[in-house]
């Protein structure tokens, strides 16, 4: 028995730490905080100061801490407790066995908290394991009212996206932020039993292509035809993010654009709007606008962003001149690349399993456990 124990301990010593620990991410939460703005943290258990390898450095016996940035240094203060020059490189973390509430944001987070300085402002960083991170994403990226198989597909897509993009914000000292630029994340404040179930059911599962975790892009609705990533963002062809017919996602919309709304184009009164060409999915690639102050060419995405992405919900639309305004009749909502969330819901309600949903929207990919994937391939 002792011999077996010694062999096991030797295995632990030789085994790389990243194989023994869960994948953890540093997520910037909330907006950057101006100098001298006080950040208030609270917890129902005592705060601990720990090292990046989770060794205990200081048990504060405090349930409240105040954090300030002055002269480029971070100060922690509590009752009969002060810590000057709290490290900004992630070598120390503020930890608790319970949720940590960031009073300024009115949100709570599992895991630990640290800080970075960017542009002379203080960023709050949540150090969190990926599964609990996903629990704080899923209810914000897909409605808990959706079918469980759709939620499972979203969980795998979100996990894959996080892993493949974990260096997206690394130059700022963290992996990802909590906005739509990465994935919307609101911590434990938004945990939901229904979405938690989908995260747990797919624990550790990611989509791979040729042995690497994929960038599993998703959006609201493809409008009946998914978009090719190269057409939307340029760059190289991505074999699993292609334009293809999508009979499960057929959202349609219409809108009226007045001359006042079109003034954002900077051409004064608008005379004509003409579609110059389309991409491989039928979306508008380029559009020419003629107004009192001249002629301008826009890409479909530029035009959409100028007039408002909530008004012009996609670049898959037709346009008609009504004289004093322009009528848009379109399909889809968002960029159209990758998995359509409403399409995933339609497939789930048609008895497709999450593996089939993912296979449809990310053709040629494989579903694997993170433990079996070498990210450096």
Automatic annotation (TrEMBL):
It comes from Peptoniphilus lacrimalis. The keyword Lyase does not apply. The keyword Signal applies. It comes from the Bacteria. GO terms for cellular component: outer membrane-bounded periplasmic space. PANTHER family: AMIDASE ENHANCER, N-ACETYLMURAMOYL-L-ALANINE AMIDASE-RELATED. This is Modifier protein of major autolysin. InterPro entries: Bact_Sporulation_Assoc, SpoIID/LytB, SpoIID/LytB_N. GO terms for biological process: sporulation resulting in formation of a cellular spore. It holds the Pfam family SpoIID. NCBIfam families: SpoIID_LytB (TIGR02669). Residues 1-21 form the signal peptide. Keywords: Signal. Residues 119-209 form the Sporulation stage II protein D amidase enhancer LytB N-terminal domain.
């Amino acid at each position: 028995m002792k011999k077996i124990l010694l062999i096991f301990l030797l295995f632990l010593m030789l085994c790389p730490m990243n194989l023994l620990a869960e994948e953890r991410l540093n997520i910037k939460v909330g907006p950057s905080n101006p100098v001298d703005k006080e950040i208030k943290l609270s917890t129902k258990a005592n705060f601990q100061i720990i090292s990046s390898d989770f060794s205990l450095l200081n048990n504060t016996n405090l349930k409240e801490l105040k954090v300030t940035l002055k002269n480029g240094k971070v100060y922690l203060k509590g009752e009969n407790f002060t810590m000057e020059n709290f490290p900004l490189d992630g070598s120390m973390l503020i930890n608790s066995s319970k949720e940590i509430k960031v009073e300024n944001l009115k949100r709570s987070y599992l895991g630990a908290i640290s800080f970075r300085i960017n542009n002379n402002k203080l960023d709050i960083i949540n150090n969190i394991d990926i599964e609990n991170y996903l629990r704080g994403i899923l209810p914000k990226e897909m409605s808990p009212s959706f079918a469980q198989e759709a939620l499972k597909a979203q969980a795998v897509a979100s996990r894959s996206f996080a892993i493949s993009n974990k260096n997206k914000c690394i130059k700022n000292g963290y992996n990802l932020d909590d906005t739509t630029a990465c994935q919307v994340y609101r911590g434990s404040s938004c945990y939901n039993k229904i979405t938690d179930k989908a995260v747990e059911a797919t624990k550790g599962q990611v989509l791979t292509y040729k042995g690497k975790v994929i960038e599993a892009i998703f959006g609201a609705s493809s409008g009946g035809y998914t978009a090719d990533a190269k057409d939307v963002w340029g760059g190289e062809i991505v074999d699993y993010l292609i334009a293809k017919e999508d009979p499960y996602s057929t959202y349609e919309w219409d809108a009226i654009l007045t001359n006042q709304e079109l003034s954002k184009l900077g051409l004064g009164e608008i005379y004509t709007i003409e579609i110059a060409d389309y991409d491989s999915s039928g979306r508008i690639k380029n559009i020419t606008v003629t107004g009192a102050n001249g002629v301008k060419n826009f890409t479909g995405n530029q035009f959409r962003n100028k007039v408002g992405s909530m008004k012009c919900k996609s670049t898959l639309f037709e346009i008609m001149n009504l004289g004093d305004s322009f009528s848009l009749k379109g399909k889809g909502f968002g960029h159209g690349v990758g998995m359509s969330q409403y399409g995933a819901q339609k497939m789930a309600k048609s008895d497709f399993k999450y593996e089939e949903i993912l296979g449809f929207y990310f053709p040629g990919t494989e579903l694997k456990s993170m433990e079996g994937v070498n990210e450096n391939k």
